[in-house]
Amino acid sequence: MAEIIVVTSGKGGVGKTTTSASLACGLARHGKKVCVIDFDVGLRNLDLIMGCERRVVYDFVNVIHGEATLRQSLIKDKRFDNLFVLAASQTRDKDALTKEGVQKVLDDLAADGFEYIVCDSPAGIEKGAFLAMYFADQAVVVVNPEVSSVRDSDRILGLLASKTRRAENGERVKEFLLLTRYSPARVEGGEMLSINDVEEVLGLKTIGVIPESGDVLNASNKGEPVILDMESPAGQAYDDAVARLMGETRPMRFTQIEKKGFFTKLFGG
Amino acid sequence: MGMFDFLKVKKNTASIAKDRLRIIIAQERSAFGGPDYLPLLRRELLEVIRKYVNVDVDAVKVDLVKEGDHDMLDISVSLPDRASAA
Q: Does residue B86 surpass a pLDDT of 50?
């Protein structure tokens, strides 16, 4: 059985693709056979973040329309033999994805021995987002500690609880909160919603807190998911999140202000 | 607290954000997750009440309120003052 994980948020630009790429790499680093699928038809970007943009020959829509086989379309990652990327199509046809088509691809991946399928959802609550979440067993809801992102995530939670296969069968999709761009200093200063604030408002448990970090941009510049940069706090935080996703218990890191310098110690703190 | 901290005016905007989110999300959850029959129920209630009392169109309010594990249907009817009553 393949575990299907949707990475979703409602709002755009909060780090869904960054998160999908890092979760997929992290799971693969644990030896799991992983496929990460870009559901953002028309605005393909996962390939760039994964660093395989020049190796896309066939895409998700080609497979669904029978223009290519799944095997032809899966792009093997250069770093992990057990990690594959299925790129989104650049077509402008909004109806390119169908529920039956998506189900067939997911079933075929499961039959092929994939243990984890990570679905990178597009922003919004349109068809692409709906199909990305429909078959999910687990949902990682990516949230920035900021009002519009939190509100949009709540809409997504409503959809996860009503418009998914699990919901239709009277089951629940396992939902987790993943906070990105978190700044402990701003939280301390009362300028940013804290982990507890967001957990409380959304009623979700946190699976990871990714600190605001320049390393994320550097990673996407290079096409190397930030989780591979184990020097970086963001990379380490993603590594923790992956471990938790696999059932491990790890304490949250990078959620407190870093140790203060000499000057601050002298004058207060 | 540092000795120069008093120079900074601290506004706790995070708590404002949290309060605003609590309210809007509670409101949206009840509207989004609520049953579709609410508007019709409200209209029919209004018709029945109007048989007996001459009330305004917006006199009947029907809301679904979440209280812990169960939902409560909150119906409130505001009657006109005696002078205008039929």
A: no
What token pair was written down for B48?
A: 């029945």
Does the structure's ipTM exceed the value 0.95? Answer: no
Q: Rounded to 5 degrees, what angle do the CA atoms A225, A176, A15 make?
A: 35
Is the minimum CB–CB distance between B32 and chain A shorter than 8 Å?
yes
CA separation (Å) from A224 to A44, A119, A241, A266? 17, 18, 18, 41
User: Nearest CA of chain A to the CA of B28: how many Å?
Assistant: 8
pTM for the whole structure: 0.82
How many angstroms away from the CA of B73 is the closest CA of chain A?
Answer: 20
Q: Which structure tokens are listed for B70?
A: 């169960």
- Of A19, A9, A39, residue with least CA distance to A135: A39
Residues of chain A with C-beta less than 8 angstroms from the C-beta of B11:
190
pLDDT of residue B85: 47
Closest-approach residue (CA) in chain B for A154: B25
In chain A, % of residues over pLDDT 70: 96
Question: Distance (Å, rounded) from C-alpha A246 to C-alpha A239?
Answer: 11
Q: Does B17 touch chain A (CB under 8 A)?
A: yes
* Alpha helix positions (H), B1-86: 13-33, 38-52
Q: Tell me if B25 and A189 make a contact (CB, 8 A cut-off).
A: no
DSSP state of A203: T
